[in-house]
Amino acid sequence: MVQRLTVIGTGYLGATHAACMAELGFEVLGLDVLPDRIERLAAGDLPFYEPGLPEVLRRNLENGRLRFTTSYKEIAEFGEVHFLCVGTPQKPNEYAADVSFVDSAITSLAPLLTRGCLVVGKSTVPVGTASRVSELLRRLAPSPEVELAWNPEFLREGYAVQDTLRPDRLVVGVESERAERIMREVYARQLAEGVPLVVSDFPTAELVKVSANAFLATKISFINAMAEVCEATGADVTKLSQALSYDDRIGGKFLGPGLGFGGGCLPKDIRAFMARAGELGVDQALSFLREVDAINIRRRIRMVDLARHLLGGSFRGRKVCVLGAAFKPNSDDVRDSPALDVAAEIRRQGGDVTVYDPQALDNARKAQPDLGFGESALDAATDAEVVLLLTEWKEFRELDPEVLGARVRERNIVDGRNTLDPERWRTANWTYKALGRP
Ligand SMILES: NC(=O)C1=CN([C@@H]2O[C@H](COP(=O)(O)OP(=O)(O)OC[C@H]3O[C@@H](n4cnc5c(N)ncnc54)[C@H](O)[C@@H]3O)[C@@H](O)[C@H]2O)C=CC1
Ligand SMILES: O=C(O)[C@H]1O[C@H](OP(=O)(O)OP(=O)(O)OC[C@H]2O[C@@H](n3ccc(=O)[nH]c3=O)[C@H](O)[C@@H]2O)[C@H](O)[C@@H](O)[C@@H]1O
């Protein structure tokens, strides 16, 4: 039975995977090229915010099942199965994904693999990458018994631990029965609990991942397109969404209208998918994703316009409070964050912007050092002429209109996530505006 796993790349995905696989009883060795990151993880200090994960990390460091290193040699000697969790970001000024970190990890690992093992790709990659990586691996590895599997990951930040321990489904792309058997051993616990497993070839496994994210992005942009129509007609998109959600065939998940999607995955994955479709000569099949992306970006522009309109047409010298910097609640991730994007645009247009977020302030400061930052929601709102709620943290949803009202100069609020009760705020003499509702 497989006992020793390694995880290469210990960011959001890899650190979660390493800690959770140790929690399931495996001996796990995690590797990253960033010595700082490895030092912090080894000390039980998670370098990002993820509810529940620090406890899992520390428990498994203490019981000795989880360790970290920067040495590929140590990894190669230790692991029976090596999970590849390095980043695949969008290339600068292009839609395509940058898979150079995958290639570099394989180039570092493969020449050290002197005995049989399975290398398992988890990173999100353009379809066709696994076949290419498989050839590279076989060419560079001294042992003929080294092979590749592709096992895309579907976890959501904020729910990463539960999504890893009990995923909705497992997908593995394999080229042999041996690889399938090893993957079944690795996920024996989840399979015994009834988690569905789809075994496929490489391209299908790669495509499941990007098509899942494309579908989720499309669902969000669909409801936001309806919000645009609602804005032109005086209809209420939150009621429309609620009514749609009662139809089981549609369902209410990912039908939340508002500022739209951001983060390190949905935006870059739909763009990389379009780029790959272009290379494959099937760009027409995915041309709708261009519109999905455009609808999503238009929500940010609409948000800025709404706020500027509330201030009489200009941000110049006006105080704006932005509540939220993370791309979604329960995360400190500001990659392609709609909230931070809106804050930066208002700053560019001359606004005096103060941002507050319960967890993402450090990352926000690094990404947008020119913005102002508050110590708390009330601090950020002091003397504000308009408050923009852009990430729906629980503490923002629970804000008291009177308490906030005592801090601001003007009682103007724009609810970018359709998360507040308009009547409550209007009764407290706030001018309440939202995306897609009157
Ligand atoms: N963040 C998420 O919720 C999910 C991410 N994914 C996918 O997982 C992959 C990783 O994403 P994140 O963890 O968010 O990225 P991340 O940027 O947080 O972490 C990537 C890590 O890989 C390390 N790395 C880069 N090159 C390396 C190399 N040659 N050897 C060893 N380590 C190396 C980096 O230093 C970094 O720590 C991406 O393909 C992403 O699309 C998939 C599902 C969920
Ligand atoms: O490939 C990935 O990395 C991951 O991408 C997403 O997960 P994540 O980026 O953590 O966040 P989501 O919960 O999907 O939210 C994405 C964005 O959509 C927005 N959203 C979500 C739901 C909704 O109804 N409306 C809406 O605007 C959120 O605010 C957020 O900005 C997918 O949900 C995961 O299954 C996938 O593994």
Write the layout of secondary structure elements.
Layout: E1 4-8, H1 12-23, E2 27-31, H2 35-42, H3 53-62, E3 66-69, H4 72-78, E4 81-84, H5 100-109, E5 117-121, H6 129-140, E6 146-150, H7 160-165, E7 170-173, H8 177-186, H9 188-192, E8 197-200, H10 202-233, H11 237-245, H12 266-279, H13 287-310, E9 319-323, H14 338-348, E10 352-356, H15 361-367, E11 372-373, H16 377-381, E12 386-389, H17 394-397, H18 401-405, E13 412-415, H19 422-427, E14 431-434
Parallel strand pairs: 1-2, 1-4, 2-3, 4-5, 5-6, 7-8, 9-10, 9-12, 10-11, 12-13, 13-14
Helix pairs in contact: 1-3, 5-6, 10-12, 10-13, 12-13, 13-14
Bound molecules: 1,4-dihydronicotinamide adenine dinucleotide and uridine-5'-diphosphate-glucuronic acid.
1,4-dihydronicotinamide adenine dinucleotide binds next to α1 and α5.
Structure notes:
It is an enzyme of class 1 (oxidoreductase). By secondary structure, the chain is of the alpha/beta class. The chain has two domains: 4-200, NAD(P)-binding Rossmann-like Domain (Rossmann fold, 3-Layer(aba) Sandwich); 201-438, Rossmann fold (3-Layer(aba) Sandwich). 45% of the residues lie in helices and 14% in strands. The protein is built from 19 helices and 14 strands. It has helices at 12-23, 35-42, 53-62, 72-78, 100-109, 129-140, 160-165, 177-186, 188-192, 202-233, 237-245, 266-279, 287-310, 338-348, 361-367, 377-381, 394-397, 401-405, 422-427, and strands at residues 4-8, 27-31, 66-69, 81-84, 117-121, 146-150, 170-173, 197-200, 319-323, 352-356, 372-373, 386-389, 412-415, 431-434. The strands form three sheets. It has a six-stranded parallel β-sheet, sandwiched between helices. A six-stranded parallel β-sheet has the order 11-10-9-12-13-14. Helix 19 links the parallel strand 13 (412-415) and strand 14 (431-434). Helix 12 packs antiparallel against helix 13. The structure holds 1,4-dihydronicotinamide adenine dinucleotide and uridine-5'-diphosphate-glucuronic acid. 1,4-dihydronicotinamide adenine dinucleotide is lined by residues 8-14, 31-34, 37, 85-88, 101, 104-105, 123-124, 153, 155, 157, 264-265.
